[in-house]
Amino acid sequence: MALISFPKSSLLILLALVPSCQGSKRQVRFGDKATFTQMCVRNCLKDYEDYLTEGNKPDPVGQCNINLDLGRGEWDPKAAVYSEAESDKTTPPPGYFDSPAVLEALQWDCKSLCNYSCFQSHARRSANEKKIPIKYAEKWPFVRVFGVEEFMSFLACLLNGLIHIYYLTSNKLRPLFVGPEGYRMKTPMIIYSVVCLNSYLWSAFYFISSNKRTETMDLFFAFFKSIITTWVTVYRIGGSGAGENAFGNTCAFISLAALAPFLFIFAFYVYLMTSFTFNPMMSMRLQLAFMGLHVIMWVYWSLIGRGRGKGYRWKGLACLFFLNLITFIEVVLGWDIDDFPPYFGLFDNKSIWLLFTVPLTSLWYSFLMNDTKWEVDAMEKKKK
Ligand SMILES: *[C@@H]1O[C@H](CO)[C@@H](O)[C@H](O)[C@H]1NC(C)=O
Hints:
single chain, about 375 residues, binds 2-acetamido-2-deoxy-beta-D-glucopyranose
């Protein structure tokens, strides 16, 4: 049995390696290089400067809406004024439910609104003329919702985060996945949940507004999550299954010490990214490698582990299978590089991937609760 099933799980190693040898990047044209966009931005900025030289104080976003009518209407570079009659009523407005207060709170200013408005105008024109969609300043023209840049991805992060908060704060559910007082997995499981929650929080910030800072935090904490997940898996699978660690005792310290090398890897990663080269692609590959390792360990456990948890291991395997499937589509088929323009200005590859992870997160918790119960029961039995 073991001999037959092991090669299957080792196939997953390939899954972690394939993203490293991906094909070349497709050439993308940028809409911000188009004459229309450049003129539009220039006129928009000029009107803004004129407004300031008239002695008006810069009042970040509210003033753009009053004087430049940005973020609402279509900017027409020929007339240099927004014209209600010319706007195409059948296409969606540049932003949904934006209010100056929200835009200001999210640090949009008139200049970035000039960009946004002109990019959206050009994107709509291209769509009306049935031209192929193009990127603007290296990004697809997402339509803002409540001032949030990539709303669907943001929403998916929020939902994932809420699941973690729900399990962490529920007095009924928390003991079911962290186990009773004195159980070796108690602290690691809490750390795991908090680290996942933290990672989704930073992703959410990134999707609200992508800039160097939010991108860095998102990458770092996503990598941290993959490191901690791997540690928790080593810790969990390494135990005897009866509440003991790999050394056959219940000393929490020994198992917690296993965290040290993982923290060292993270420190080295931070050093690489900050002092050596800030490379988001490398970060993603490293993260995938650790996620691959985590998957291999669980699959190994499920197929040729100690035969524990026979009844519920399908949950864990189903989670890993679907997570791999969507990651395979996302990464291996190259969606993350040759990504497609967002449908309705909202749904792109990342948001679809993230929305699929929402039900998987709850299924994974359900699996963890079953496994904790199995270990705790075995622990009780052994005591008697
Ligand atoms: C506007 O877009 C251009 C690229 O077309 C970019 O270089 C510039 O930094 C953007 N400005 C703002 C304020 O976002």
